[in-house]
């Protein structure tokens, strides 16, 4: 569409465009003939009670957060437990001021069943504090499996008072799933959404009316390019993103052995006593063990084939792997994470020198053990 013919969505106010379904304001060309023109996002909420992901650039997202700081609001920050560091908005209070925050940690169902929930909760609280987030409450949940969902609703009711509720989070954290569940929980909300245009007036917010005249505001998911899930082909997401509890893979390694995670990443045990390493990645990600001396040649010869995904036709789109070297101190309880892929736990008291090879730009870090 040209600027001369552009119109605005009657629901959220975004400028309508017909070229890019993944961008804000998309609507099929045939919909332009209708008396009321809605973008695809608002159309799906209105007709199917479904909120779809829309992704602004990071500068626009930070402007949205800054706007929250000027209002009396309750902020519900949804993060992905499987990629906690990759989905957390560090320094959130710099943008939202003193507004209270409920940290909703989604996808708890992906962890192995034999977990200590209190340990996970304490770990999350510690990590949030270290990243500059002051939480009124932390709720562990699974929107998909309806675990902890009642507590999410109770926490929102307890802390919002006369405030609007802003829901923020990165892409692929389950934000839309959670909001869709809230909509389905309340029949009065559902009736409102299926009969009325939405009162949002900015291009990137959808306001969902609550029963007391306040609103739940859905903000578009922010894209963090440091997550592997944001740079790989969509066909490979179903492999990397787990959809069932993770089955940890334990490897007893001698020094100078290597683990490949498909062709996405590589773990080198460079030096240390023989010890075990536990890999927490999607069950669909194949792990291949080899000798460190052979690793470079193996990757060059077999990436996209024996080492896949990505497959040969998509391996060229993956950024080159870069090295991240770490020394894990003796006696520490540590994990090394690859954002969007998972993490590897160092299980021995002996310490280790390791190197992670991950696509350029993907976040790699050492953290205290989650499990």
From TrEMBL:
CDD domains: YqeH
One GO MF term attached to the UniProt entry: GTP binding
InterPro entries in the record: G_CP_dom (IPR030378), GTP-bd (IPR006073), GTP-bd_ribosome_bgen_YqeH (IPR019988), Mito_lipid_metab_GTPase (IPR050896), NOA1/YqeH-like_C (IPR048422), P-loop_NTPase (IPR027417)
Cross-referenced SUPFAM superfamilies: P-loop containing nucleoside triphosphate hydrolases
Domain CP-type G positions: 58-225
Record-linked PROSITE patterns: G_CP
Record Gene3D superfamilies: P-loop containing nucleotide triphosphate hydrolases
Xref: NCBIfam families: GTPase_YqeH
PANTHER family per the UniProt record, alphabetical: GENETIC INTERACTOR OF PROHIBITINS 3, MITOCHONDRIAL (PTHR46434)
UniProt-recorded name of the protein: Ribosome biogenesis GTPase YqeH
Designated gene of the protein: yqeH
């Amino acid at each position: 569409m040209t600027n001369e013919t552009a119109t605005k969505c009657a629901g959220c106010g975004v400028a309508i465009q017909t070229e890019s379904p993944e961008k804000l304001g998309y609507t099929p060309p045939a919909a332009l003939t209708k008396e009321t023109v809605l973008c695809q996002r608002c159309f799906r909420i209105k007709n199917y009670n479904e909120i779809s992901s829309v992704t602004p650039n990071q500068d626009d997202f930070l402007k949205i957060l800054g706007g929250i700081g000027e209002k009396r609001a309750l902020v519900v920050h949804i993060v992905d437990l499987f990629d906690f560091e990759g989905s957390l908005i560090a320094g959130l209070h710099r943008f939202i001021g003193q507004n209270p925050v409920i940290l909703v940690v989604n996808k708890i169902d992906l962890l192995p069943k034999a977990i200590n929930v209190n340990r996970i909760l304490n770990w999350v609280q510690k990590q949030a504090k270290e990243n500059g987030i002051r939480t009124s409450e932390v709720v562990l949940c699974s929107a998909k499996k309806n675990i902890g969902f009642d507590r999410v609703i109770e926490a929102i009711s307890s802390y919002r008072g006369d405030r609007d509720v802003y829901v923020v989070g990165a892409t692929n954290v389950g934000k839309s799933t959670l909001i869709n569940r809230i909509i389905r929980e309340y029949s009065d909300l559902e009736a409102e959404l299926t009969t009325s245009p939405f009162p949002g007036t900015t291009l990137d917010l959808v306001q969902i009316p609550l029963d007391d005249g306040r609103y739940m505001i859905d903000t578009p998911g922010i894209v963090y390019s440091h997550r592997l899930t944001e740079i790989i082909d969509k066909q490979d997401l179903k492999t990397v993103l787990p959809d069932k509890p993770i089955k940890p893979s334990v490897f007893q390694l001698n020094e100078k052995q290597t683990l490949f995670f498909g062709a996405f990443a590589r773990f080198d045990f460079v030096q240390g006593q023989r010890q075990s390493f536990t890999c927490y990645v999607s069950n669909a990600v194949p792990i291949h063990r080899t000798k460190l001396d052979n690793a470079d040649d193996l990757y060059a010869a077999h990436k996209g084939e024996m080492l896949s995904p990505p497959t040969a036709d998509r391996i060229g789109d993956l950024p080159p792997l870069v090295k991240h070297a770490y020394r894990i101190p003796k006696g520490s309880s540590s994990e090394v994470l690859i954002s969007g892929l998972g993490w590897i736990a160092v299980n021995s008291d002996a310490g280790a020198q390791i190197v992670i090879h991950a696509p350029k730009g993907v976040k790699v870090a050492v953290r205290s053990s989650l499990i």
